[in-house]
Design brief:
Length: 257
């Protein structure tokens, strides 16, 4: 179903599977803006210059017209709402990760059960209006990783993402890319607004959230990210997201009930 072809200001649907080997939607765009809620499992989306992780109890807002791709693996339950460009609802103007309240979750779930061509008056219209209000008022989460456009940096980024346990220094990665240390540092700051160390730490946070949502243990995640001890990983995670990995995931799983 192409949401842009459905003659409704808001188009919703859900998807549930317990046997999701993997899904990858190549780069595409919609005229309608899109909110994706991950109820179970985790999604990763690349949207024009950024990588976003959507763990349980979070959602991603993608503005209309933004070029994006979506990847997911494992058990997945999620809900989408597509919002027409003419809808005046104070929705975010840029891509962002949103914290999902129980009310927003229930509204998305309920709206996904509406007929595609639902009546635009009465209870259905009121449900959609409240849904839009909740999207507009949702809090923003820091689950975003700026992605560089420079081809030399993208090679470094791809290598880092394939081998996140590699703790090579800036100088080591610069040599691998055929750049000087100074050039790599300047390029990554120009393209992402972050230092190399800060960018790599944010990558670690994003991967940790994705793997934890997929069922990996804290010990597994710490090892796969190259941390010598679990406490050092937990400290990094707490500094980045304000809570421990176990509490972060427990809150998201508890919110499903």
């Amino acid at each position: 179903m192409d949401p842009d072809e459905v003659p409704r200001p808001v188009v919703t649907y859900g998807f549930i599977t317990d046997d999701f080997d993997s899904i990858e939607l190549d780069l595409h765009r919609h005229a309608k803006g899109q909110i994706i809620l991950a109820q179970r499992g985790a999604l990763s989306c690349e949207v024009e210059g950024g990588l976003w992780i959507v763990p349980p109890r979070s959602a991603l807002w993608i503005p209309g017209g933004a070029l994006h791709s979506v990847k997911a693996t494992g058990v997945l339950e999620g809900y989408n709402a597509f919002v027409g460009p003419d809808v005046e609802a104070g929705l975010p103007q840029a891509c962002c990760a949103l914290s999902v309240t129980p009310l927003l979750r229930e509204l998305l779930t309920r709206a996904a059960a509406l007929p595609v061509l639902y009546e635009e008056t009465g209870a259905n219209a009121r449900l959609v209006a409240v849904l839009l209000d909740e999207i507009a008022s949702a809090g923003i989460e820091d689950l975003h990783l700026p992605m560089p456009a420079d081809a030399r940096l993208r090679r470094v980024v791809d290598l880092l993402m394939d081998a996140p346990a590699d703790r090579g220094t800036l100088d080591v990665w610069a040599r691998r890319a055929g750049l000087s240390e100074r050039t790599l540092a300047r390029l990554i700051h120009r393209e992402t607004g972050m230092s190399f160390g800060r960018w790599r730490q944010q990558l670690a946070v994003m991967l940790a959230v994705k793997w934890l949502a997929g069922g990996a243990s804290i010990q597994q995640v710490a090892g796969d990210l190259g941390y010598e001890s679990v406490p050092s990983f937990v400290t990094m995670f707490r500094k980045a997201l304000g809570t421990s990995p176990s509490r972060y995931m427990a809150e998201r799983h508890a919110s499903r009930h």
